[in-house]
Amino acid sequence: MRTTPSTDLDAQTRSHLESIRRMIAMARLGQCPKRSAAQSALQTLEQMTRQWRERVGMKHIDLHATRSALVQLTWGHLPEEAACIDAMRESLFVLLSLSEQEEAR
Question: Is residue 50 classed exposed, middle or buried when 0-12, 13-18 and 19+ CB atoms within 10 A define those classes?
């Protein structure tokens, strides 16, 4: 099956977002990742957000809680449990939105 650029972007985005979700889930359990890993995840999130806006036109995507949790992890701090839960919820919403868009194609 041949994929379009937006399909590739969606698959790549899903993979990166799932990785970020795992990092935040582990933080919720009290395991702080290495700062370099958190910084890399934050950079990836920023890059994905730019790609959504530029290529796909998804200007409505809001990942503030996810970004906030990652920033705290880059400082070497564990986000509060509620912040982790908010980040997990909003990132799940994005994953579900991507799945719905893929099904609509």
Answer: exposed
Dist. CA 42–CA 64, nearest whole Å: 11
**pLDDT digit string, tens, across residues 69-82:** 999 999 999 999 99
Residue 82 CB neighbours (<10 A): 10
Higher-scoring residue by pLDDT: 96, 85: 85
**Of 68, 69, 63, nearest in space to 22 by CA:** 69
Within 10 A of 100 (CB to CB), how many other CB atoms are there?
A: 9
Nearest to 17 by CA among 82, 99, 76: 99
Please provide the average confidence, as pLDDT, over all residues in the chain: 85
Question: pLDDT: is 8 or 84 the higher one?
Answer: 84
The pairs formed by 31-38 with CB atoms below 8 angstroms and a separation of 24 or more are 32/73, 32/76, 32/77, 32/78, 33/73, 35/73, 35/74, 35/75, 35/76, 38/70, 38/73, 38/74
Amino acid at 31: Q
